[in-house]
Write a structure and sequence with these properties.
Residues 25-257 form the Ciliogenesis-associated TTC17-interacting protein N-terminal domain. This protein has 380 residues and is α+β, with helices and mostly antiparallel strands. The chain contains six helices and 14 strands. The chain has helices at 23-31, 34-37, 168-181, 291-314, 317-332, 337-346; strands at 43-49, 55-69, 75-89, 92-103, 108-119, 122-133, 136-145, 148-158, 188-193, 199-214, 217-229, 236-242, 248-253, 259-261. A hairpin with a 5-residue loop joins strand 13 (248-253) and strand 14 (259-261). It is elongated and about 115 Å long.
Length: 380
Amino acid sequence: MQKKSSEAAEEEAPVQKIPPASKGAVEFLSQIEAKEIKPCLFEESLVAISESGGTIGSFSVSVELSCYSLDDWEEEDCYLVRATSKGTIDGVPCTTTITGYVTKRLETVEQHMKESVRFREHPVETRTHVVKREDQLFVRKAIVERDQEIQVDTFSYKCTHLQGLISESASFLVLRVMARRKAVPQDATFLSFDTNQHICTSSYNALGIQKQQVGKEEVDVFVIERAVHSFDDIPLTWLFYFLPDGHLSRRVQVGSPATMVILQMPILIDTDEPDPRPVFEKIPLDWEEDVELYSRFLDTKEELQASHATYVRRHPELSALLADFLQLLLLRKPDDVVAFAAEFFATFSAQNPPCRSFQSSDKPSPFRGHVSVQSNDKGQ
């Protein structure tokens, strides 16, 4: 890891030793498929409730399909995650927004996070930008006061050292998948960013099923504890309460005076799998023994015979044409009857110029592969 400040941008800090993620966490991420994430793509909103029961803010999360462009030519399908938290603590407005692009492998390719605290005439913002370029992950953290950057820190990490990394954006998807499974892998220790944007570990633990009152209804919720273990500060811990389909019903940050809750039950996402297509065995069919099919056969046969007879009556030239063909066929007795018939009826084609039948029968025919021609010398 490299660290740079705004005053000495080129100075290098000692390389931070990145802790490894647990084997179970890495395997968990590799086993998540796109079809499992598909029902996790939805938007939800909660309200922030103070300890006295008053509404002091809101919390919303949305996940949708999108495309991320690495440059003007290459695009990659990904998930666009947006999260916003607004509230007032001790009369001070606080806002946190997160916008992240997460691949289908749950790798974060870019993330913007902004935390603002607006004191009287003294607004302070912390802006963090994370972006992946080739085999490097670059992090830029800036503290802004009155639109002026007063401190800038930059870091870079090799992606090969970040196996099992879960950013804040990807964490929303991971939590929803765990909630739908109602299970958290054993020893689920991932990598994450702490408040200073240093790489640290984060752990997930299942706390089981609990009861929660949502409006007038009491529902079962699955509780997951997430903790970010910083090397320089105390751990940050959250409790997430999930409905069966992955909707968040309650969110608590340990030590915070605000609690995020839903006020009414959302429409749960139904993911029942369709019934398998029925398989019908082939049954031998003897149409002559089937009364209905045999009756249809006789009716169709009579209709065709009547139709053919009517056509012949309306076209008497057909009988004369066939009589001429059969008479010439019996006189010539050709070896190739098909080619002979083709030559005979070709003279009646509208695509050929008018000519006398068989006036050139001694010349090569397009209907024959080989025609032997015997001719006398011109002087004979």
